[in-house]
What does this fold into?
Amino acid sequence: MLSDQSHVAAALCRARRSFHSIANRRALSLAAACCAMLLVFGAFRTEAQDGGATLGAAPPPTAPGALPGSGDDGPSEDGGPDDAGASPAPAGDDGMSDEAPPPTGYNGPFVPIVQPADWSDDWLTDPPEDVLAGGGSGLRRRPFIAFSFASADLYQRADRNRFYEVLVLHYNTAPTSAASPGYFQFWETYRAQVRAVNPSAALGVYFSAITTQSPTEPQHYPYPSTDYSNGQFVCLHGTNANLYDPRPDNFGYYSPRNLADRADWQPWGPGLFGRWPFYEFQSRGWMLRQTTYLCRPVIDVANPQVRHFVAQALVRALTLDYPYANAIAFDNAALLRSTFDHWPGKGQPLSRYAVNPPDADFKAYLDHVRAALNAVGGKLIVNTGQAAALAPHADYVFYEHSFKRRQTTAEFRWLLNDAATAMALGARVIHRYHSEDVIGRLDANLPDLMYFLGAAMLVYEDGRFGFDPMLWNPAYFAFYPEYFLLPTWLGDPLGPYSEPQAGVFSRRFANGVVLVNSNERRAVLTAAEHAAAGLGAYGAPLSLSAKSAAVVVSDCSAASADGDCAGRYQGWPLHAAITRGDCNCDSAVNSGDHTAIVLAVTKPYLYDEQFPYCDRLSADMDGDGVVTSNDYALFHSQVFRGGVPRDPNLIGDMDCDGYITNLDINPFTLALVDPATYLMLHPECQLERADLDGDGTIRLFDLDLFVDLLIAQ
It folds into this structure.
């Protein structure tokens, strides 16, 4: 029975190759679903009596570099051509397409890139409504989440379909543990399940865009005096030496084939990120001298042979090696001039890019690789810090450093524009969520998360924007409906985002509104600004604390039953609460508020001028409705003295607030030079408080002791 199931599973998996045909799309969904079930029920089990087909294994391997059915069993174990199975090319035909000459010294076959006449990518961009509909609210699930690397155990979870329905993208490394066919197998099982539920999800395998493994000896490659980062990144020295990661080439890098027969079968040798083999590329003259990224040598992306080799290797990965993957994720997609005017190779005498940046060559390289992948139905994902710059050259742009509360308003506005521009240029954009605190649950730091989600919804487009929630800790891996279904609950956007006040952004949706204050101080919208932005109908607040976001869902009746829609997205107060002591309106009470509270107590007009978005009552520490020196004393005690109670008889406390602070300086000076005026202005105090040496007189000797007392505080 198991043997029969094995053959059925293999046949159904091979049916995946007919996905090029539009007419076969629904047949594919059925085949993938059946295949997924067989893979789940029989994964990793082997049939002993016939030696065995592995139930749930990938389709019978076609050799690396060979066309299906060609009879070629590919390169031999040492990476060279196999004498027995190679099909010779016709006379005058080198086995490669016309766009690049064969690489010098390379005798292995290449897979030509063929564009099927009837191929369409509708299955990637336009999923049928019945696939994503249903469950919970009955609303069509809007794709929103993306995963990188981890989370492969999703295929074992009872609630996995909830993730699959809203998944935009998921990529992982190629197998990276020696002799671990199980790693390869459970990723294929997972991808088969996702494809059956959500054909629009991009499922990628991770490779380096530009770097190789490091050579085993530094002298084998002329390292630059600095790396790419502001001239401060020195490879092989000091704290950066750990980035030099020497590895021998593994000539099995073409594909994860003959799994049972290899002790070390992963595509690129030991190590993460699918980096290209250094000595293989160097022997062909394919390396850029003195040009490194993260202290790893960079391949010559301007060389037509390199472009062709990489493109063919990646096409082979999608068409032969990873049956359910439909994308390649390019790490290190950063061979560009940076915002700091640096790039790999800059200023290095042996580098081709010593003077001029490599942007044009790198973008042409991406165009070549992308065209090759698109021709066989695959997509190109790039990890980058410049989404708009690479949007025309990739299908997905994965931005690892996204909206954060500590960013300036200018940085925040740049990120919004960068994401919107990238999507306008046709790319799908993924932003990774980073909390300022260590993440336990996804919402462990709710202010950070809400700020990120508010910013994300300002630019969200259905199927074109997603976020990576960084659920890398298995203990907190869960489906969070309040956040993963937020675009579903908000509904269609009613237009692009607006900026009703400098640094304050809003966007309206069919079922809610988003409001983000990127300023470092409290924002208060005027009634006219509030009305012009159309915020009144949603019950959106008139004021927001510094670096905060308000997301309002108008009608929670259609939300998932297990999601706290009302508790999270309704009931916003018209004005944000005032935090006593937060006098600079940065949502924190700390020493940074000291200057602000001094002005609020002593010079209210200057406070209003310098902190126009703040409320002076934030300085009312005792809550009596007025701001006095007593409030400063309470602030000083809380922030600088750990809450030590006031001492009403303290020598040196010249304003009699119970503490020795900077506010005692002027009263002490007055007691020293004009005792009568001091007693008139401070009738509750005694002149003797200024007699710090206790000799019965107030003189300059007491001034020195007073200064020492202040410093000691």
